[in-house]
TrEMBL record:
This is F-box domain-containing protein. Residues 4-50 form the F-box domain. InterPro entries: F-box-like_dom_sf, F-box_dom, FBXW5, WD40_repeat_dom_sf. GO terms for biological process: protein ubiquitination. GO terms for cellular component: Cul4-RING E3 ubiquitin ligase complex; SCF ubiquitin ligase complex. Signal peptide: none annotated.
Length: 229
């Protein structure tokens, strides 16, 4: 004998068809009714559609979380809600925009290995450089600030096709200085280990002068077979 159909035990597919007609706000409200309703509410078919509709989302799989519902909520809760500033003096084709961990600075990279560094609040232009001219780069592939906001690492492709990284410091007055460069292959595969070390196949220390660092760097490269990967 079939059980009586009620709102508490409505079949999954039937409730899913009802949910298809609701907005994402109404879906969230329905999810608070019961465990069964919440389970159906999280169906990926529903939230994949809302991701595409609300955020012009084009990815086939969630990028940040493990489900489409959680991905939608991540964007809903974490994207900027107010226009803070408009940067009008950047004339290059924008490729990347990276914010420092504490939000004190941000860096924008453009086509042709250009990059600019800005202070966030108040908005202030600090530095502009073309690595095509100074380091013979074709393109900047990635950028990453150190955990304490004091340095920024950029990786890119040189004109000969090899990979390289470059590190710049940002002093308390906002002056940006070149520290060092190092081979990085494949290009873009590098990250900070802490404020003084980075990982790109080997670990390098930044606590000494630039000349000493470059000399030490040559020794590290010569000893690559015995150094820590």
């Amino acid at each position: 004998m079939l059980p009586d159909l009620s709102w508490d035990n409505i079949p999954y597919e039937l409730l899913l068809n009802v949910y298809r007609e609701l907005s994402y706000r109404d879906l969230v409200s329905c999810g608070a009714v019961s465990v069964h309703w919440r389970h159906v509410m999280r169906d990926k078919i529903l939230w994949k559609r809302h991701l595409k509709g609300v955020y012009a989302w084009w990815n086939w799989e969630p990028l940040v979380t493990t489900s489409y519902y959680d991905e939608f909520m991540f964007f809903k809760r974490n994207i900027p809600k107010f226009l803070k500033e408009v940067v009008n003096d950047y004339d290059y084709d924008l490729r990347h925009c990276i914010f420092s961990p504490f939000g004190a600075f941000f860096l924008v990279c453009g086509k042709g290995a250009h990059f600019c560094v800005y202070r966030s609040d108040p908005l202030e232009f600090l530095h502009e450089r073309c690595l095509k001219d100074s380091l013979s780069w074709q393109e900047i592939t990635t950028a990453q600030f150190s955990p304490d906001d004091s340095k920024v690492m950029l990786t890119g492709v040189r004109q000969d096709g090899s990979g390289e990284l470059a590190v710049f410091s940002i002093d308390p007055t906002g002056e940006v200085h070149f520290i060092c460069r190092s081979p990085c292959s494949p290009p873009g595969v590098a990250c900070w280990f802490d404020n003084d070390y980075l990982i790109c196949g080997e670990i390098y220390q930044f606590r000494f002068r630039q000349v000493s660092f470059l000399n030490r760097l040559m020794n590290l490269l010569a000893e690559a077979t015995t150094s820590l990967l």
